Amino acid sequence: MEYRQYQPPRVLERYVRYFWSFDSFQNPNATLQIKSFADKYPRLIFQNLDGFEALTNLSGDKLPACYLSGIDTKHTEAIINGNFSHFGVSFYPHGLAAFFGESPVALINQMPDIRLICPAEIQSQLQRATNHHARVSLISKFLYERLRAMRQDQLINKIVHHHGLDRDISLDELGRHYRISTRSLQRRFKAVVGISHKKYQRILRFEESLKQLANASFADLGVVAYDLKFTDQSHFIKDFSAFSGMSPYAFAKRKSVGSESSSFIYTKDA
């Protein structure tokens, strides 16, 4: 498998974290599980279906060739049989509102076909592209044109970039800092990001636990829980399981063969 990241042009970097590609040319008979956990970063995902297999959900339905994935607040699972070639955009939490003008609230835990969101022929253009570098150029132009047509909430933009990784700062503190009422800030944050600031911080803490558990043992779970300021280990396990569908110990024990953000790829028999 080959996973790569590509930097966005400067004009997009306030809303786009990076572009990425993920390709597998190893075993056409392999069956892989993609477990996606809670994730504060929405995405656009393109599946190259020219000689490659499509992702399917657990009901056996194929996912669209090109789709948006809103912020995830719960875990999902998909299956892929054979080789694949994917290209994607990892947005900052306020990215979907910036480019598509859709209510991010309506896209929480959803994966709509891109053709339902905008009329542009971006899917066919990405399919015709001969390589991922060409897709970077195409998607950059597409997003820039959409960004110019949308109004942006600069306050939420500042909060995401200046305080977006702060697990402890409260809405009251942010409101005082930016001289806005807590209630107004709460409404604006949810309207632009899609989830409440409280849930955003819960996901932020969960994502930090994923990083720490990557090199942890069962004996370290209490240390991780303490470091992330859970009241006790049982609350940590409950919160982690709600966002991932597995216990912290099971996640630490099971080794993935690849990952992108909070999505992890496992062999079917692992």
Number of H- or I-type helical stretches: 10
Shape: globular
Mean pLDDT, rounded to whole units?
A: 92
**How many domains in all?**
3
Given this structure, which CATH class of the largest domain is correct?
Mainly Beta
CATH topology of the largest domain, by name, is Jelly Rolls
Structural class designation: alpha+beta
**Describe the biggest sheet?**
5 strands, antiparallel
Strand order in space, largest sheet? 1-2-8-4-6
> Do you know the CATH architecture of the largest domain?
Sandwich
Series of secondary-structure elements, N-terminal to C-terminal? EEEEEEEEHHHHHHHHHHEE
Flag low-confidence runs. none
Question: How many strands in all?
Answer: 10
Cα-based radius of gyration, to the nearest Å: 19 Å
Distance between the termini: 17 Å
Helicity range: 25-40%
Strand content: 15-25%
What are its keywords?
single chain; 270 residues; alpha+beta; Jelly Rolls; Arc Repressor Mutant, subunit A; five-stranded antiparallel β-sheet; 10 helices; 20% strand; sequence-specific DNA binding; DUF6597
What would you say this structure looks like, in words?
With about 270 residues, the protein is an alpha+beta fold. The chain has 3 domains: about 1-150, Jelly Rolls, CATH 2.60.120; about 165-195; about 200-255, Homeodomain-like (Arc Repressor Mutant, subunit A, Orthogonal Bundle). The chain has 10 helices and 10 strands. The strands form 2 sheets. A 5-stranded antiparallel sheet has the order 1-2-8-4-6, with helices on one face. The protein has a 5-stranded antiparallel sheet with strand order 5-7-3-10-9, with no helix packed on it. A hairpin with a 2-residue loop joins strand 9 and strand 10 (about 265). The protein is globular. The protein starts with a strand and ends with a strand. This is HTH araC/xylS-type domain-containing protein. Keywords: DNA-binding, Transcription, Transcription regulation. GO terms for molecular function: DNA-binding transcription factor activity; sequence-specific DNA binding. It comes from Pseudochryseolinea flava. It holds the Pfam family DUF6597.
